[in-house]
Design goal:
This protein has 303 residues and is α/β, with parallel strands linked by helices. 50% of the residues lie in helices and 8% in strands. It contains nine helices and six strands. The strands form two sheets. The protein has a four-stranded mixed β-sheet with strand order 1-2-6-5, with helices on one face.
Length: 303
């Protein structure tokens, strides 16, 4: 059980629960690349479930064809009707938890950047219900949490915490904290220039090579989450026995290989965008053991 109660929340939180907006965005754990970037995860998942790999191929072909002629595919998605969701005591509890977790990441990364003689520009956490807008396009609860480098904001529908426990079998408040710490890891990558460099490289790569590069991005964010967990445990006294195990369970639950098996599909490494369960656990622990961001170089090391 994370010792979060009584701790100061972050001031960098926007409460958009109950508002409505467009649909789109990027999936859990993946940094949104803005317009002209990757296909939105929620749309891929929907097509894959209904039409299989053939449907994805048709969707991707049409998507990139529109890009090639200068049209914005995301701008052509018709948003659904307005949605509102009354805040509940559970939602308020999750909102408070997320606010405190963001503050705890601010403390850790602020100190790490300061030790290097730099200032840590803090990200903003947008908590919404249903759907909202981001600097990278639309965001919906179906897309899962994500980070948008264009506006330096994390987007989270806290109902994902319930989905993480019930659908993915990864309960516990530290599992939820890991999700936030992973997205903050993408913010660190944005500040260091990693995200923009990867996006530039991906433009000249084929699908399998671009996916392989994205896996390295995601595993580094897992490692950065582990760096935060190191200090949350050893310095801040935030964690209790069993919390790290919850984080490892969450990392395993959302490994590409497990997700594909659970969907009844063949495991296809060329389609991985986040890494296997074992890889996600390994890189989280790489960061956790030493608390050193230098141990998170997924780009120079073999996976």
């Amino acid at each position: 059980m994370v010792n979060w109660r009584g701790r100061a929340p972050s001031r960098n939180v926007e409460d958009r629960r109950g508002s409505s907006g467009g649909i789109g965005g990027a999936g859990f754990g993946r940094a949104g690349m803005g317009r002209g970037g990757t296909l939105p995860f929620f749309l891929i998942r929907l097509i894959l479930n209904k039409f299989g790999i053939a449907g994805i191929a048709i969707l991707a072909g049409g998507y990139f064809l529109l890009q090639a002629v200068g049209l914005d595919p995301m701008g052509m998605v018709e948003p659904p009707g307005p949605q509102t969701q009354q805040t509940t005591s559970e939602s308020n509890e999750q909102f408070a938890f997320a606010s405190v977790m963001l503050a705890e990441t601010e403390n850790v990364w602020g100190q790490i950047f300061e030790a290097s003689g730099e200032r840590y520009p803090q990200p903003t956490l947008v908590v919404f219900s249903g759907q909202t807008r981001s600097g990278c396009g639309g965001a919906s609860s179906a897309s899962g949490p994500f980070y948008c480098p264009a506006d330096r904001k994390l987007y989270l529908d806290t109902s994902f915490f319930d989905e993480l426990a019930e659908r993915f079998g990864a309960p516990g408040d530290f599992a939820s904290a890991y999700v936030i710490a992973h997205e903050v890891g993408h913010h660190v990558q944005n500040l260091t220039g990693t995200l923009s460099e990867v996006q530039q490289q991906q433009r000249s790569l084929g699908e399998a090579e671009a996916n392989a590069l994205q896996v390295r991005v995601e595993l580094q964010a897992d490692c950065y989450a582990g760096v935060w967990a190191h200090y949350a445990d050893r310095t801040a006294g935030l964690l209790e026995e069993g919390d790290i195990a919850e984080g490892l369970d969450a990392a395993a639950a959302i490994g590409d290989d497990r997700l594909q098996r659970n969907a009844g599909r063949r495991v296809d490494p060329d389609s991985f965008t986040h890494g296997t369960s074992a890889q996600r656990q390994e890189w989280f622990m790489n960061g956790y053991r030493g608390g050193n961001p230098g141990d998170c170089d997924t780009f120079s090391n073999s996976l």
